[in-house]
Amino acid sequence: MNYNVLRYFSVLAQVEHYTVAAARLGISQPSLSSAIHNLETELGGVKLFEKVGRNIRLTDEGKFYRDKVDHALSELHTASVMLRDSKISAPVVIRMGFVSGTLDGLVAKQIRKYAEKNKRIRFHLTESSAESLMDLVRQEKLDMAIVDSTDRDRSLHFRKLHQRDLYVALPADHPLGDRHFLEPQEVVSETQIVFNYNVEKSFREWTTGAPSDENVVCTVDTAQAALDLVAAGVGIAFLPENCVKPHSEVRFIPMKNWHQALYMCILYDKWLEPPVWEFVETIVRSLREAHKDISPDENNRM
Hints:
alpha/beta; Arc Repressor Mutant, subunit A; six-stranded mixed sheet
């Protein structure tokens, strides 16, 4: 049974005049007459209206049906309003991924500001490697991700944010722990803990020209896990500057002329809800403005 036909019947039952009802509904009188005739046929031939001179009036069956239809239409309207209002007031969840060291500072402040500005906003945050985050974006399990590498997959779109300096984390008693900076060749043979495949791969290709896993003793997904292993003397780890935190058992030494780029990764041609897209633009704009003094091509190895 068609919703519009029930609405036509309800209006006609109110005014009991085809011309007036058709005008109120914005349809032609023949269309209204046909709709009512089809409705009566669908109901088994029950007459809902009867002629009184040149006018019409509801039959007893029509009055019974009017009460039921008006109640049903009222319930449908109420349900529609409730669904619409719930959609308007429902939380908007922004699903963002990030590699270690990118959530602190400016990004965290932007999350706080955005949530304070719009009480509907909720954040679901995921920390992982760039490869895992890109897979989650592809699968539409994340709306966006801040990553430290790009991919040739054309389904993904990358926007460069800025670049960050890289450090080597050494156990506190390491012989090189008192240096002001280190050259790559000085640590290339050290046992390594890899928390970021792209950093480690770039480092080996840069220093030796031939990637090798022989020095890698452990692979982890987060900087904190890497630092815990460095502190235990398992090996060294290469970390971005954002991951450098005071630690009594770890020494952080800058790597000379070695930097890493960060990118905003989203799914190409995917529609994002306006609040989500606005947040993407906010992050891109704020990070670019904060690091606008850095040349995009300056010693960028990633």
